[in-house]
Amino acid sequence: MAALKYAGLDDTDSEDELPPGWEERTTKDGWVYYANHEEMKTQWEHPKTGKKRRCAGALPYGWEQETDEKGQIFYVDHINKRTTYFDPRQAFTVEDVQVKPKRYDGNTAALEILQGRDLSDKVVVITGANSGIGFETAKSFALHGARVILACRNKTRAGEAVRLIQEEWHKAQVEAMALDLASLRSVKEFAQAFKAKNLPLHVLVCNAGVCTQPWKMTEDGLESTFQICHLGHFYLVQCLQDVLRRAAPARVVVVSSESHRFTDLVDSCGKVDLLLLSPPKKEYWSMLAYNRAKLCNILFSNELHRRLSPYGITCNAVHPGNMMYTSIHQSWWLMTLLFNLARPFTKSMQQGAATTVYCAVAPELEGLGGMYFNNCFRCLPSQEAENEATAASLWELSAQLVQQRVGPQAI
Ligand SMILES: NC(=O)c1ccc[n+]([C@@H]2O[C@H](COP(=O)([O-])OP(=O)(O)OC[C@H]3O[C@@H](n4cnc5c(N)ncnc54)[C@H](OP(=O)(O)O)[C@@H]3O)[C@@H](O)[C@H]2O)c1
């Protein structure tokens, strides 16, 4: 025996051999249990090794599981036309080892998180997916089989993004759909077009954003940074809420930023002030507008989680990384200069997409939300971002703004 072991040929199954009087059985869903005929008892643990086991796969092709009149499970082999009480899956059982969640950090790439994952049963919508972090997020999901919809404002850029992903994998299920978050009408049309496809929606990533752009009023009469980063997403989630609910458990990820820490939103009475969110031109400072919009992202994510988690929709906010060289800096030369200087020290696009991807699929986050993540790690946002009263007040104001423009039935 020792010689066999030395040669690597020892009988590794021997320890799994059952003592006399014991029989191995399986439950309907593939868990192995052990029955002792003499003592008339059953247990999950192997009587010798104490290990728990489960079937490694599904029933072989042509087999079916049925239950007889006494409630006992039996198996029908339709190909060979025979019936047995022996579960054919018992030939391939594996030890039930508690797999600890992997630890990720700021160096983790999105594709690393998805390693080994088959997402072919998932439908994902990502706003602003034609460039930067959104593009890498979309690509990562698509390369793992998910059906990915790139919700973008520019048709040409979106088409090019789809082409690039399909160039990496010709079977990637990606398509672009028109969505301009600066227009509530466009958000509504996007939602209608998406619903017309009769698809479920498992993951919605609110990623699109603009930073330090000159003051501009949207067709809905609001400052554009606020509308693109927050209100457009707020309305989008309202429009898609029923689809998300039907696909539950579903997840929403809102891409925010650490810059949320450098501002607040409330007036002296503690109410969210629309003049701070959507200021007139003479009171507009582009960086501050961005910070406020990013604070809105976390408040919205938390409130959304409070409201929708009872229906199986969870929501988390993320910071993707600092000063990553995407297109976000292009509106202001000073930002472009700073982003260029920082470029050698910042995350790659794949690393920038990692926290979003983590929040969208990590099994250990199933059912969990209302949190803020950075480097795939839960961290505390600013006190203001955690303020439930502010979140409720922002929700109320956002609902009013949408209703005033789209109609009372909009929310
Ligand atoms: N880069 C960073 O260092 C950093 C840091 C913290 C947080 N973030 C956040 O990460 C997210 C993604 O930004 P990014 O860095 O990847 O920048 P990006 O490359 O500029 O991507 C932003 C995306 O949003 C889209 N977008 C802009 N306005 C839109 C609108 N009205 N409707 C629909 N889509 C619109 C852009 O489309 P177009 O191509 O048509 O403009 C683009 O696809 C943003 O929410 C940003 O705040 C980025």
Helix/strand order, N-terminal first: HEEEEEEEEHEHEHEHEHEHHEHHEEH
What would the principal axes of the Cα set say about the shape? elongated
Low-confidence parts, pLDDT < 50 over ≥5 residues?
1-12
Unique bound compounds? NADP nicotinamide-adenine-dinucleotide phosphate
Describe the model:
With 411 residues, the chain is α/β, with parallel strands linked by helices. The chain has two domains: 9-95, Ubiquitin Ligase Nedd4, Chain: W, CATH 2.20.70.10; 110-406, NAD(P)-binding Rossmann-like Domain (Rossmann fold), CATH 3.40.50. The protein is built from eleven helices and 16 strands. It has helices at 2-6, 110-113, 132-143, 155-168, 184-196, 224-246, 274-277, 286-308, 333-342, 349-361, 388-406; strands spanning 22-26, 32-36, 41-43, 53-55, 63-67, 73-77, 82-84, 93-95, 123-127, 147-152, 173-178, 203-206, 250-255, 313-319, 371-374, 377-379. Strand 5 (63-67) and strand 6 form a beta hairpin. Helix 3 (132-143) crosses helix 10. Residues 1-12 have low confidence and may be disordered. The structure holds NADP nicotinamide-adenine-dinucleotide phosphate (NAP).
